[in-house]
Amino acid sequence: MTVRHITSAPSAAVLPNSGGRASDDGSGRTLLKGRQTKAAIVEAALGLASQIGLEGLSIGALAEVTGMSKSGVFAHFGSREELQISVIREYHDRFESEVFYPALGCARGLPRLQSLFDNWMQRTSTEIDSGCIYISGAVEFDDRPGSVRDALASSVNTWQNALQRCVAQAQEEKQLTEKADPLQVAFEIHGLILALHYEARFLRNPGAAERARKGFTDIVARNQP
Predict the structure, then answer these.
(1) Statement: the pTM of the whole predicted model exceeds 0.85
(2) Which residue from 5, 26, 64, 153 lies 20 to 30 Å from 135 (Cα-Cα)?
């Protein structure tokens, strides 16, 4: 599976219409160029956010790294909050495409749950140097009500609900005991990922990934019939 890992923002040279002005050569072409420009800005913003956090994003910062004018960037988002939310949505789409959707090709139950965890581990490992927007965003916005926090929480809840459904499906397949609580199992699995990120990124513990895998095996074994 190919994991897209952004280490730097794209240069102004790759940004279509870098001056922020739409060409007047037909509404269809203008619309396409506008979408391409916005996608390029979001790509740059995602690279920045992975390094400096969502709070560090601003219209001015994006204008500087993309070579666009502030008014050109603003025209695509309208506000700093909308820019941050666009980054969250893009991050969530990539997270699903790399972690969730590949697992759907596995059989219902434990094979799918195992695949979800393995994919999640792989993505977390690629984010050791850059950081996870879900995790850093939670730290930045946990006590700050508003649209950005709501977008973050919605994305994480969507993923958590998908994880809980996989646990419930494993119960339906008689691979996990009926007494298992899907919410609790998902909570513990999520805890492993958070611990992996902390141990590997902050403490630079080389054994963190192995401990996370063992933790997952123990959770499954503890909840089997």
Answers:
(1) no
(2) 64
